[in-house]
């Protein structure tokens, strides 16, 4: 099963570092960086509002656990967002490319 994994980062520099490492390690086929995200959330009893960069990560469910652990190791947040969404349908050639890009 192919997946899109979401992960927000505190800056473009951090987002690029994580994305490049994940691609290099062949845990992901592609990462899109989406700047300009504003997150509003509760953390340790306070309402927080932060500008972030979202990573849209393309991988497979079989690699998710390893990918999640690697993101946690690379990410500066105490509890990084790592949420997987299953891809229900997609361009077959693109999905084949994802599969061929992973270890």
UniProtKB/TrEMBL annotation:
Gene3D superfamilies recorded: 3.30.70.120
List the GO biological process terms.
response to metal ion
> Matching InterPro entries, A to Z?
Ion_tolerance_CutA, N-reg_PII-like_a/b, N-reg_PII/ATP_PRibTrfase_C
Pfam families annotated for this entry? Answer: CutA1
> Which Gene Ontology molecular function entries are recorded, alphabetically?
copper ion binding
Q: Where is the signal peptide?
A: none
PANTHER family in the cross-refs: DIVALENT CATION TOLERANCE CUTA-RELATED (PTHR23419), FI09726P (PTHR23419:SF8)
Q: Which family does it belong to?
A: Belongs to the CutA family.
Write down what this protein is called. Divalent-cation tolerance protein CutA
Instruction: Output the lineage of the source organism.
Output: Bacteria, Pseudomonadati, Pseudomonadota, Gammaproteobacteria, Alteromonadales
């Amino acid at each position: 099963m192919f997946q899109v994994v979401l992960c927000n980062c505190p800056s473009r520099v951090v987002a690029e570092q994580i994305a490049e490492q994940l691609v290099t390690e062949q845990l992901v086929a592609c990462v899109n960086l989406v700047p300009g995200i504003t997150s509003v959330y509760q953390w340790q009893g306070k309402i927080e509002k932060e500008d972030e960069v979202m990573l849209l990560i393309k991988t497979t469910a079989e690699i998710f656990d390893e990918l999640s652990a690697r993101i946690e190791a690379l990410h500066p947040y105490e509890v990084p967002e790592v949420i997987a969404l299953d891809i229900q349908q997609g361009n077959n050639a693109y999905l084949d490319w994802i599969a061929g890009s992973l270890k």
